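Title: Prediction job returns without error message
Component: structure pipeline
Severity: low
Priority: P3
Assignee: unassigned

Description:
Job completed but the reporter wants confirmation the result is attached to the right record. Sequence as submitted:
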Amino acid sequence: MTSSIQQPIPDAHSAPREFLEHLYRVAVERALPLASMGAFLPAPPKGRTLVLGAGKAGGSMAQALEALWPADAALSGLVVTRYGHIPPRPEGLASRIELVEAAHPVPDQAGLDAAQRILALTQGLTADDLVLCLISGGGSSLLTLPAEGLTLADKQRINTQLLESGAHIGEMNCVRKHLSRIKGGRLAAACAPAQVVTLTISDVPGDDPAVIASGPTVPDASSCADALAILDRYRIEVPAPVRARLESGALETPKPGDPVFEGHVTQVIAAPQQSLEAAAAAARAAGIPAHILSDEIEGESREVGKVHGALARAVALRGAPFARPCVILSGGETTVTIRPRQPGQAKGRGGRAGEFCLGLAGALAGREGVWALAADTDGIDGVEDNAGAIVTPDTLRRAEAAGAKLADHLDRNDAYGYFDAIGDLLVTGPTHTNVNDFRALLIL
């Protein structure tokens, strides 16, 4: 993506779609690690500096560190990111950190191999050494190392079922931590006695480092009992020996107050609220008042879309609770519960942002003067090639003309097919950061 900060801001009245896309780009650029990492870097240690990391922003975080770390100070390590998410290397930037790729959101052998190598690199560290951990959203899948008694196939099945269950990110990561040999603070424990400094980009409501990528370097307050309750709630089975170890507490994670974390530092270098504030500032600079609802909105994507639609209708019809024109912004992490398919029904495609847009379009029912964009800030909505979608006053009419019925697409979770039929997918490619959902509604 090209820089948007210095570019002219499109006029919201004559080019509403371009205006919303500009706000999205501004939000993404605020979360790029090179812009903020320097303020959080420690001094080089007496010993060596080891870099370990995982996440969708792993490639750009590693390159930012290489650019900012003193050229005469040693730097080495391994970071794993999603396939296709290593950014082009800036000309003249020396490569000091190895980057590898693996699968997301369902883990694969490459991710397992990377996790094993990362854990092996912690061997032989001393109190004079520094470990810089670069953690961002997506690290849970990319850094997979199943607990004893679990195979990679088991983890893939459990992960897929969690993704399709409608469980929120905190629930999913609680289970992942307790079924792992590297998450939930275990990576930090393996680094002892070295100092650990974790730099993280938040993709979770509340910016809790224990939830981001399942917190491989921070204490975990959840318990084996919590993980079991979640598995039971969503009817997800684990092998009997593993269940027994959960029941006995044998798979418990390091807790707050554990001396293994003494002297460790964790810094959130980019967060969803910062990106929403950057987008709001850009809108106001263009003369459009902006209102941020929250960066912590969760819930079923289509239902969150309906609520946003009701708010936009109130503004469009009554000028309340906000006066027109305005932009309404929100972030967070919604969920999509996959509906059972009917016999012969094609499998739907799409992610949280697209399903939000389906719910929003239905609630707006063609309301004049309302435009919207919803997208994931990593540039990938679910597992598709789009970041999200755009809703316009004539979305429903154009979709009907193209033979796409909103209810049918909702029934099979097929947001991608719906918006693809009318050319309203937002396609950006990987953005090399990840501060989760971005939603902007423009009411003129």
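Comment from assignee: result matches the submitted record. The first strand starts at residue 49 and ends at 54.
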